[in-house]
Amino acid sequence: MNACSGRLADRVATVTGAGRRIGPALAQRLVADGARVGPCDGDVSLTGRAG
Description:
By secondary structure, the protein is α+β, with helices and mostly antiparallel strands. It has one helix and two strands. It has one helix at 23-32; strands at 12-16, 36-40. The chain has a two-stranded parallel ribbon. The longest helix has 10 residues, at 23-32. The radius of gyration is 12 Å and the shape is elongated.
């Protein structure tokens, strides 16, 4: 288990721009630390494709 796992349990994060650049990595890290993540990106579909 990662030393950071669970430190954000019971927390919610909204990641704007979650579909591109550093956004996906940020969202994945927050999830790994126990947060519930709401990704937001107006130009990316639920499948991660632009448009």
